Amino acid sequence: MFTIQRSSLFAKLVMVLSILFVSLTLSFSNPALAHTGFDKSNPPANAVVTDELKELTLTFEGKLESLSTFKLFDSKKQEIKLDKLLLKEKVMTGILSQPLSNGTYEVQWTIVGEDGHPIQGKYSFSVQREGDKQAQTELKTSPSPSATVVPTSTPSPSATEVEEVSTSSNYLIYVGISALVIIALVILLLARRKK
């Protein structure tokens, strides 16, 4: 009779500890489900830049991981290579080898935040400098809808659109570990009962 009470007490203890462990794991994993969002950029979305532009800066709401990057494309969808890409905490800075000429540009970024979740987005801006005759001629000879300058003071809904790429892997890791611990405890409980 003592053995049955001891097993029953042990089983209840295992169940309580398992529930406590799973609850704590899920409560601590909630911050991992929050994604690092886009905060602001320089130049801003839909801006018309009239000065020489040699640097692009994107700022996010959380710390960025080393896999974060962005690419710059002109109105013909040709990639403009960055001379350097710098990551510091929440800020990603792209240094250009030469100033951008007149035209419309699109920045496509992909970041990995502290939670390990990849997020991507894009926004556009235009450069319209006086005295940049080569680019002005280029715009006149090859007009396209994407080269239209749209001066706005508020960004359009698509200006900073964010698309999620995959689910958080941290959450799945916690669930997997919890399941393994529960299975191990059940096996241990069954092994003790057989004795």
TrEMBL record:
Which positions carry the signal peptide feature in this UniProt record?
1-34
Region Disordered: what ranges?
132-161
A Pfam family reported for this protein in Swiss-Prot or TrEMBL: CopC
- Keyword check for Ribonucleoprotein, yes or no: no
- Which of UniProt's keywords are assigned here? Copper, Membrane, Metal-binding, Signal, Transmembrane, Transmembrane helix
Q: What InterPro entries does this protein's entry cite?
A: CopC/D, CopC_dom, Cu-Rt/internalin_Ig-like, Ig_E-set
* Compositional bias segments (type: Low complexity): 141-161
Compartments annotated for it: namely:
Cell envelope
Q: Which residues form the CopC domain?
A: 35-127
Q: Membrane-spanning residues where?
A: 171-191
Classify the source by domain of life.
Bacteria
Designated name of the protein? CopC domain-containing protein
Give the species: Paenibacillus plantarum
